[in-house]
Design brief:
68% of the residues lie in helices and 0% in strands. The chain is an all-alpha fold. The protein has one domain. It is globular and about 55 Å long.
Length: 120
């Protein structure tokens, strides 16, 4: 579930390398092992709700991970901006945190390592 959510969240139309997804999922699991009980519960509740949200939001008996990729991306947007969007915040926060820790993230985002503002 986390892998498919990450794939949907970070695919800008070019696909996402499996190694990046492996890295993100492994790092997220490691982070959550070290996080407190509340953080683990929030992420778990959000992931379960997202998995079954097409039933609630679309009225369709299908899991999030079984939606076609394009439909999954549209559904994620609706979920995030809908009445249950607050459930998405911890999941997205932790996924973004670990996904952009990857060494290739700086190159992808165009960050050159220099500060945005020079401090005198």
């Amino acid at each position: 579930m986390l892998r498919e959510m990450a794939r949907t969240l970070f695919d800008g139309g070019r696909g996402v390398a499996e190694s990046r997804l492996d890295f993100a999922v492994a790092e997220l699991r490691d982070l959550l092992e070290r996080a407190g009980l509340v953080a683990r519960l929030l992420v778990h509740i959000a992931a379960v709700f997202l998995q079954f949200s097409p039933l609630v939001l679309l009225g369709r008996l299908v899991r999030f991970t079984h939606l076609p990729q394009g439909e999954r991306a549209r559904h994620l947007g609706r979920f995030e901006h809908g009445p249950f969007g607050i459930l998405f915040v911890p999941l997205k926060l932790y996924l973004c945190l670990v996904y952009y820790e990857h060494p290739e993230a700086s190159r992808e985002t165009g960050y050159d390592g220099r500060p945005l503002v020079e401090v005198p």
